[in-house]
Amino acid sequence: xxxxxxxxxxxxxxxxxxxxxxxxxxxxxxxxxxxxxxxxxxxxxxxxxxxxxxxxxxxxxxxxxxxxxxxxxxxxxxxxxxxxxxxxxxxxxxxxxxxxxxxxxxxxxxxxxxxxxxxxxxxxxxxxxxxxxxxxxxxxxxxxxxxxxxxxxxxxxxxxxxxxxxxxxxxxxxxxxxxxxxxxxxxxxxxxxxxxxxxxxxxxxxxxxxxxxxxxxxxxxxxxxxxxxxxxxxxxxxxxxxxxxxxxxxxxxxxxxxxxxxxxxxxxxxxxxxxxxxxxxxxxxxxxxxxxxxxxxxxxxxxxxxxxxxxxxxxxxxxxxxxxxxxxxxxxxxxxxxxxxxxxxxxxxxxxxxxxxxxxxxxxxxxxxxxxxxxxxxxxxxxxxxxxxxxxxxxxxxxxxxxxxxxxxxxxxxxxxxxxxxxxxxxxxxxxxxx
Length: 435
Ligand SMILES: *[C@@H]1O[C@H](CO)[C@@H](O)[C@H](O)[C@H]1NC(C)=O
Ligand SMILES: *[C@@H]1O[C@H](CO)[C@@H](O)[C@H](O)[C@H]1NC(C)=O
Ligand SMILES: *[C@@H]1O[C@H](CO)[C@@H](O)[C@H](O)[C@H]1NC(C)=O
Ligand SMILES: *[C@@H]1O[C@H](CO)[C@@H](O)[C@H](O)[C@H]1NC(C)=O
Ligand SMILES: *[C@@H]1O[C@H](CO)[C@@H](O)[C@H](O)[C@H]1NC(C)=O
Ligand SMILES: *[C@@H]1O[C@H](CO)[C@@H](O)[C@H](O)[C@H]1NC(C)=O
Ligand SMILES: *[C@@H]1O[C@H](CO)[C@@H](O)[C@H](O)[C@H]1NC(C)=O
Ligand SMILES: *[C@@H]1O[C@H](CO)[C@@H](O)[C@H](O)[C@H]1NC(C)=O
Ligand SMILES: *[C@@H]1O[C@H](CO)[C@@H](O)[C@H](O)[C@H]1NC(C)=O
Ligand SMILES: *[C@@H]1O[C@H](CO)[C@@H](O)[C@H](O)[C@H]1NC(C)=O
Prior knowledge:
Elements: H1 2-11, H2 25-123, H3 132-149, H4 152-164, E1 170-171, E2 176-177, E3 207-212, E4 227-232, E5 247-248, E6 252-254, E7 269-270, E8 275-277, E9 292-294, E10 296-297, E11 312-314, E12 317-319, E13 332-334, E14 337-339, E15 352-354, E16 357-359, E17 373-375, H5 412-417
Parallel strand pairs: 3-4, 4-5, 4-6, 6-8, 7-9, 8-10, 9-11, 11-13, 12-14, 13-15, 14-16, 15-17
Antiparallel strand pairs: 1-2
Helix pairs in contact: 1-2, 2-3
Residues 187-188, 219-220, 240 line the site of one 2-acetamido-2-deoxy-beta-D-glucopyranose.
């Protein structure tokens, strides 16, 4: 009966029964009670159904969402699988390409070796047979092509072979190598220890004798720990090359006109050769920390912002050198010449200069010379305006006709230790009477 009623209630809302006048109070109560139960049940049922409807609706939505999620998931999984397959295929392809490239480079090397062997057998070990000029030309041409096609490891192998047969060493007859490596692509070649690697104390690297590398492109090359006996790098490109811990063991080292931007000479030690020439080289941003160089010519070189911290230069020439903003902290320079040198803005804190002359328009404008020690140096005719000489020791040093105007940190005691101030402009602008 409830179920039936329920069904009816579902279809239509209960119509209000008109209340007729004249019924007794009891009849009213009875009627209300009779009606109230199904109405209450009906209302409850509607509410319940509503809730159920809501529930089933959210269930449906939930299922839809799950289905959708599953679909999305399937798509994602499929996509991931596809991408993964692609990646694997790509990797395989790269591996294949790498292997092919490797084989091709190996083939280039073998082909070159065969060519050279044949040529040497035909034209003699010095390529000085009947056809020597043609032989040298062909050898150079083939060598340049070979180097340009090889990776750094094979370049090093080929280089050492050519060095062993003395084709790339100085030949007194030509004042060059038999096979000139000018413009050869020797970039990234490692002929010593790997770049920037640690060097154990007492390490003795291989020694290259009479190597002739004029004009070669040795960008990023490493000579770390190598020893040189007679070597020429004239006009070579040596940007970013590593000469750390190199030593000289022969008569001359020639870096004239080379490009040594950002090159590294950390702990390099050149003091045996009587001729060490860097004339015209470009050293911008070079790392020359702890570099020891004796009898070295830096005339007309450009070494802006080079870091020479703790370097030691003895009997060196810095004529017309551009050393703007160099870091010369704790540097030790002895018996050397600075002439028309631009040392503007250099950081010379704690440096020691001994028996060194700074002459003819050398500029030290704004240089930080605090804690510097000048022992019997000569700063005649130099421009030191705006420098910092806080706690500088100027013992026996001459400042003849020099401009010290605007220098900070100079006191009477320091000035009294100088050898001469005649004709100079003092920090406060006072001009000292010339002698
Ligand atoms: C080629 O050079 C070698 C080694 O310097 C020498 O012994 C030889 O006589 C030279 N040959 C010719 C044809 O000049
Ligand atoms: C040299 O090495 C640097 C990284 O140190 C690299 O960016 C540059 O391409 C290299 N140059 C050559 C010519 O290989
Ligand atoms: C070094 O080069 C000079 C000049 O070319 C030469 O006289 C000398 O013999 C060479 N030293 C060695 C060890 O070959
Ligand atoms: C110069 O080299 C020194 C010693 O290696 C280092 O402490 C300093 O930071 C360097 N200065 C610059 C500006 O690179
Ligand atoms: C000082 O350097 C010059 C070359 O600039 C050299 O001839 C001379 O022997 C050196 N003197 C000393 C004491 O080292
Ligand atoms: C020295 O440097 C200062 C500051 O740059 C400049 O004003 C002056 O003309 C320069 N020359 C001389 C000879 O002092
Ligand atoms: C010295 O340098 C100052 C600038 O710092 C300049 O005004 C002055 O003229 C210079 N003195 C001489 C003698 O050149
Ligand atoms: C001069 O050098 C001293 C010591 O290095 C430093 O404390 C001071 O700040 C410097 N003065 C100027 C003006 O740079
Ligand atoms: C400066 O040199 C004189 C002799 O030339 C010497 O007596 C004195 O002790 C030296 N002073 C310093 C601080 O080196
Ligand atoms: C300039 O400085 C010098 C040395 O410190 C001093 O003897 C002189 O009296 C000063 N001149 C002026 C005008 O302050």
